[in-house]
Amino acid sequence: MASAPWDNEMTQRLAAKFGPAISEFATYLGQNFMVAETASVPAIIEALKTEEGFDYLVDLTAVDYPNKPERFELVYILYSFRRNERVRVKTRVLEGQKPHSIAAIHKTANWLEREVFDMFGIEFAHHPDLRRILLPDEWQGHPLRKEYGITQMDDQWVKENLAIESGH
Amino acid sequence: MPGATFLDSTELVLNMGPQHPSTHGVLRVILKLDGEKVMGTDCVIGYLHRGVEKISENRTYAQFAPYVDRMDYVAAVSNGLGYCLAIEKLLNAEATPRAQAVRVILTELNRIASHLLWLGTHALDIGAITPLFYTMREREECLNIFEKYCGARLTTHAFRIGGLNWDIYEDFEKDCKRFCDYFLPKIDEYEELLTGNRIWVERLTGIGILNIDDCKSYGVTGPMLRAAGLAWDLRKAQPYSGYDRYDFEIPTRPNGDTYDRYIVRMQEMRQSVRIIRQAVEGIPEGPIMARIPKVIKPPVGEVYVSIEAPKGELGYFVVSDGSLNPYRVRIRPPSFINLQALDKMARGSLIADIVAIIGTIDIVLGEVDR
User: Fold this and answer.
1) A77 interfaces chain B, CB cutoff of 8 Å
2) Minimal-distance CA residue of chain B relative to A102
3) CB B218 within 8 A of CB B203
4) What is the pLDDT of residues B108-136, one digit of tens each?
5) For chain A, which terminus, N or C, has the lower number of CB atoms within 10 Å?
6) What ipTM score was computed for the predicted complex, to two decimals?
7) Which residues of chain B have a Cβ shorter than 8 Å from any chain A Cβ?
8) Do B46 and A133 touch (CB under 8 A)?
9) Taking the model in full, what pTM does it have?
10) Is B253 helix (H, G, I), strand (E, B) or coil?
11) How many other CB atoms sit within 10 Å of the CB of residue B144?
């Protein structure tokens, strides 16, 4: 990704406050993002909310990169009504690592983290109510992981219930 | 319950849905009740989950476009617009002026259609049956324009990455103008039925209050946020598709209750008519498609693009790995996120108000579950 460095007063303040915990400030196609250490993400989001006015968590999601050592990328999209600006906070997490929930900072995160757990199997530590949200509780696996085949569930069901190979 | 007496005051757990006419689809709400008072709610969703985000990874960029129509199926045009804008942003391209104007007209018509369906069903939930017939009659006119334009009425797939699938038909402008002239007095008609109606007012006023801070904390956007008093609309805050060229207002109300959300949506329909009238006047001549490659293969990168859908902020976070298929498409659905605030709004209200509160969020379960 051909991103350019992002540098302004806010990034300088954040860099001074969090030091090496934020490894990159960049901008791509006019959209700003920062890459941070997983452990510092709640503190960064809290600081963005209280000190910089990013008081609206637009979205929280993940991307799966099975071939990279740190498998998942968590993406937090934040918006500030005061500045009319968006920023993304990205962090890499390992398989099995439990990032800290931010539901205490933004209530929106409650369902969004549940969805990430449901779809990717990333567990959030200290989440108030971490259950599956869109899929049934007895569902096997996490569909948005790359190795999860699109017909896997169908085939399995057909095999178990009809005792034949799937027709497609 | 063993040991329970007749006058036992334990809380009662009541199941509502998923098959319930006022949950607007397959939404199941588990209610914890103390008498008639709601002590807590838990939403059970996912009945309509079709794995749209997973499907995207197995389709090309153009192939995936019709799928997004099936999320918020009463506002399919908005869904399509958001997706097209996101991919255009990844390609660093922009639709032609003619395409932009047509996109605005169709999107606003769809906003009206979506609000009309909301109004009819919401009123029906409260007990007013007549408005449903009125709103369906007018919604039909919107859908007829879609049908004439692209052959489909609900899942329109009206736009294409880079512009439009089809140019407008011969009488398109005339039809839109006629619709505006016909529709504007109809809003007054609905208001005459409802706005001052004592039952309507009593059932909605002070119900399901969400103030600005709650809205921000729960990420609630769209008419619900504006009814709480914050004049925030992505069409103004971060204009797309040439919305900055049109003159319109953002209606707001101060109280953030169910009644205010009703008033805001009514005003929004009037503003939509205002936008359509301006856009129809000067649809620029020229091509309907921007010059984009036939095979869409965006460079490696990621973008987040969002629009003001009838229900709130609809966002697409798209990651490209430089191949023919999107690496990841994340859809930020306004209905899903707004629904999370149900618990906040319902706690402490009466069981009869739950119906009004679910209706006022304006959810479409296809979008909640994706």
Assistant:
1) yes
2) B217
3) no
4) 999 999 999 999 999 988 888 888 999 99
5) C
6) 0.89
7) 45-46, 49, 51, 53-55, 57-58, 89-90, 92, 216-219, 230, 232, 237-238, 299-304, 306, 313, 315, 317, 319, 327-328, 330, 332, 336-337, 340, 369-370
8) yes
9) 0.88
10) coil
11) 13
